[in-house]
Amino acid sequence: MTIEKKTFIPLVNYHSHTYRCKHATGEVVEFVEAASKAGLEIFGISDHAAFPDDRWLDVRMRYEELDNYVEAVHAAQRSVPQVQVLLSMECEYVLEFKNYLEDELLGKRQFDYLIGAGHYTPYQGGWLNSFTDLNCISHLKAYTDYLCQMMESQLFTFIAHPDLFGCTYLDWNADLDSCSREILKTAEETRTPLEINGNGLRKKLLNTSVGLRPPYPWRPFWELASEFNITVVCNSDCHNPSEVVEGISENMALANTLGLEVVDLTHFLLISK
């Protein structure tokens, strides 16, 4: 018996970064031109959010660069009309800037959507680096609570790489299972899509007790996700124009294997404007 192998062709990517984040290369129009050549119909530009107090400048633009960023996206929309180019940012949920996210970015500047992301986790008056510091249950619980607050805010169209703790923990355990269930339960209750992120597939593989694996997506998290009534999005999270579709097909295949629904955000974005 021959089993037909299903091929997944990416048509959308809602997660990308330009040179402005200081760990990517390429201008907005270069990404959009690459997206057009790759056959993408919708492409979201989503650099790391600038904040009015210019925090975390090692990985993002200054607030004063925001006008230039918006204009670069608008210029790409004009120069590559065959691709629907969307204006976005990938944002930490900083409570004192909730109004900035809602009133300025989504309001005054008319961003098409915002991505919620926990690159940093609020903890005891400071911020943990979620790539390196989720190394104990109290930090993991803080990260979990933070993602749940993001989803409950209803400011974010989807949550990026929720399984980011895979960078720190090598092997799955009961604490990860419990915290993941809380994240997934909140995603279900708030109807917030979770992202299966392609950038983790481009990172150095981790040597674990069950063999080599990428830091994320971490399969046990997504296997657990199949027990919940949630939706997912599959994005490249590209940091170079050559990566505009990298990882998307692989993650769509993972979603299909696990019976996860890949949601079409197009309708949501159109009716939310």
Please provide a brief summary of the model:
Helices cover 35% and strands 18% of the residues. The chain contains 8 helices and 12 strands. Strands 1-2-3-4-7 form a 5-stranded parallel beta sheet. A 3-stranded parallel beta sheet has the order 8-11-12, covered by helices on one side. A two-stranded antiparallel sheet has the order 5-6.
Task: Write a structural description.
By secondary structure, the protein is α/β, with parallel strands linked by helices. The chain has a single domain (12-272), classed as Alpha-Beta Barrel (TIM Barrel). Helices cover 35% and strands 18% of the residues. The chain contains eight helices and twelve strands. The chain has helices spanning 28-37, 66-79, 98-108, 137-153, 174-190, 219-225, 248-258, 265-272, and strands at residues 12-13, 42-48, 84-91, 113-116, 120-123, 126-129, 158-159, 194-197, 206-208, 211-213, 231-235, 261-262. It has a five-stranded parallel beta sheet with strand order 1-2-3-4-7. A three-stranded parallel beta sheet has the order 8-11-12, with helices on one face. A hairpin with a 2-residue loop joins β5 and β6 (126-129). α4 (137-153) packs parallel to α5 (174-190). The longest helix has 17 residues, at 137-153. The chain starts with 11 loop residues before the first strand and ends with a helix.
